[in-house]
Amino acid sequence: MEVEGCHFQFRIALLGDAAVGKTSLLLRYVAGAPGIREPELEPEVAPTVGVEFYSRALQLRDGLRVKLQLWDTAGHERFRCITRSFYRHMVGALLVFDVTNRESFEHIRDWHQEVMATQGPDKAVFLLVGHKSDLQSSRCVSAQEAEELATSLGMAFVETSARNNSNVDLAFDTLTSAIQQAL
Ligand code: GDP
Ligand code: MG
């Protein structure tokens, strides 16, 4: 489907506990857009689910253009507070934890389960994101155990920092490529 000069539209959600850094990661990505289109930093709001989203156009490797619709779960992070309609048509999700917050890592399986339980036949593509990688001295989740979790759930793992702007584009590019391959 053609969307504003784009060949595809991908609806992607950022999921994970409150305060892991989802909004910061999203804003870093949207604000850092290399100008296919000026980023719009005022979120759009889907009134039916009350969830904010941002859009960014992206050129895929083969020249196809995709519009990413990036859904933030602002204030809806309490488990099971997100309505099923939120997950409808969602093609991908970043499952975000904070590398300095053990509990947020342990909740990743719950977030994954929640999406899997509410999905239709078209399964979403996931990426595990260990965020706040700049805080190495207080980290309490190792890259190795995060890798192991990602492998057991069948997804890739990327460590990011919005503060250092580390791997932010890589995280979204990795997920977008995986979605494209799953089409
Ligand atoms: P959300 O609730 O998951 O959307 O998290 P926020 O984006 O609101 O961030 C929660 C807190 O973590 C804020 O104080 C942010 O400044 C902080 N934060 C977000 N990203 C990073 C990061 O990459 N590194 C560090 N050190 N702090 C971050
Ligand atoms: Mg937020």
Automatic annotation (TrEMBL):
Catalyzed chemical reaction(s): GTP + H2O = GDP + phosphate + H(+)
Enzyme Commission identifier(s): 3.6.5.2
UniProt keyword annotation of Ribonucleoprotein present: no
Cellular compartments per GO CC: membrane
Signal sequence segment: none
Domain of life: Eukaryota
Membrane in keyword set: yes
GO molecular function, one term: GTP binding
Principal location listed in the UniProt entry: membrane
Keywords of the record: GTP-binding, Hydrolase, Lipoprotein, Magnesium, Membrane, Metal-binding, Nucleotide-binding, Prenylation
Needed cofactors: Mg(2+)
Membrane topology reported for the UniProt record: Lipid-anchor
Entry's localization field: Membrane
UniProt function note: The small GTPases Rab are key regulators of intracellular membrane trafficking, from the formation of transport vesicles to their fusion with membranes. Rabs cycle between an inactive GDP-bound form and an active GTP-bound form that is able to recruit to membranes different sets of downstream effectors directly responsible for vesicle formation, movement, tethering and fusion. The physiological function of RAB42 remains undefined.
Family: Belongs to the small GTPase superfamily. Rab family.
Full protein name: Ras-related protein Rab-42
Naturally occurring in which organism (per UniProt): Orycteropus afer afer
Gene, per the UniProt record: RAB42
